[in-house]
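User: Hi! I'm working on a homework problem where we have to compare a predicted structure to a textbook description. Could you give me the structure for the chain below?
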Amino acid sequence: MRAWFWTLLLAVVAVAVAVVLRAHPGNVLILVWPYRIEMSLTLAVLLLVGMFLAIYIGLRLLAWLLAIPERVRAWRGRRAQARDHELLERGWIGLLEGRFAHAEKDLTKLLDQTRARNRRVLAALSAARAAQGLGEFVRRDVMLDRAREHAGTDPGLIEAVATVSADMLLEQGRPQQALQVLEPLQDGGARHLHTLRLLLRAERALNHHDRVFTLARGLLRRGAMDKDEAMHVIDVAGAARLRAAADGDGWRAIWKDMKTDERVLPEISLAAAAVFEAAGEGDEAARILDAAIARKFDPRLVAAYARCDALQVPRRLQRAETWLQQRPTDPDLLTALGTLCLVGQLWGQAERYLLRSVSRRADPGTHALLGSLYDRLDRPTDAARHWRQATAVAMGVALPVLAVDEALPAADMHDDPRLLDAESGFLSDASEAPAPMPATVHDPVPEFAPAADYVLDPDARSLTELNLLDPTIMPAEPAVADAEPPAELDDYFDSAPLPVAGLDEVPPETREAPSVASDRSGDKPRGDKPRVDKPRVDKPDDGKPGGGA
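Assistant: Happy to help. Predicted structure tokens:
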């Protein structure tokens, strides 16, 4: 629009000059010794306009030439700024996406190449945040030190470094160091809400309840904190202050300093009622709990309201019965009424309220109260039942029902292989045997004759079947303390001469050795020893006595 305006104005001026020059012809005489120049007026005007344009263009061209270095420096600055912005943008995107390694790399590169102090501080703080995300706390501290170095004496940058450092220290779980970092800002911290929030986090972590109470009040007053959250913090901190000062009289000043809406908070009401009860002012404690319950019904407040001495039971019981009209099925209120009746020794009403409570909710405390009531009324069966139910509810599992006590049968130690004498093959005296130990279940061990009385036969049972040399049942040590060590394996077998096949009579040598006579018809063997068949020999051994297998 402006270009069109100036073009139109220039055209109007040109037309006006042309009309004036045409209506007023004349000459222009220029005397410059020794020259005399004469020309028309029109030519003189045109020459003046041309000279102006030439001088203007020449001056502009000279200015442009002289400004070349400055323009080059500005172009380089813009290009560097564009690179810095690109790295900063890429680093922040990686930081927000959680790609801390890539973000730290880009931000460290930006810190090394940028020349602007603000961007250096910003890059150092952002790289420290990325290192915090990676858990590299040493690199984080290095970046924070570089940020403080580049911040210099700029108050804004110093505060930025302090707040970011305190925030990361609080995330790491080091509130004491965070308070030390924020200490220079505490004087002017009232003007910065973020600093107040960080101070509140640090003080809460260190359980400095007085400071927490004051900071939460200030943030709530300025609208910088959610009301419900602020009231919860005030509630916890105020109750802790009252409990800490309960030993002396300082709690009275703390109670007077609290506002009306703070006194009816649950934790503060419980703590105040406790200190007033300890001071012997039960009526004031009842009023505090009554006001808190009227504002918000809380089972903890109701339970505290039921804990009193017998003199206050009628008044509190009357007040609690009015609450029962509004909440007739509330188990916590029914338990509180039962507790009041127990304190006042109103056994029938106490039983009725407590039974109504457990019928609506199985609570170990209520069952325990019923157990105490039945103990007081000398009803041991009912008392034991409720004590058992209280235990079951508290444990969260059903208790097993145990059978009637009865004596266990005596252990059968007749077939215990550890009582077997390795030499005799018979059971040793139980008094001399070692103590019984858990053993693997085996087949019953027969009462064998001494091992020397046995001869081997191919049709006879194997040693394992005889359970005589089974390692799983043989005792590790001799059954008799003074017995000799067991002999070699071959010593357990019969060494008597074997009868030769085809001979009707047994040599006299074999008659002397003890043997077991048995027939193959299945008859029982003679004597008290088990049956063992004679071995078969296919080839005679020159009539010489043979050793046992």
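For your comparison, note the following. The two ends are 132 Å apart (CA to CA). The longest helix spans residues 68-97. Good luck with the assignment!
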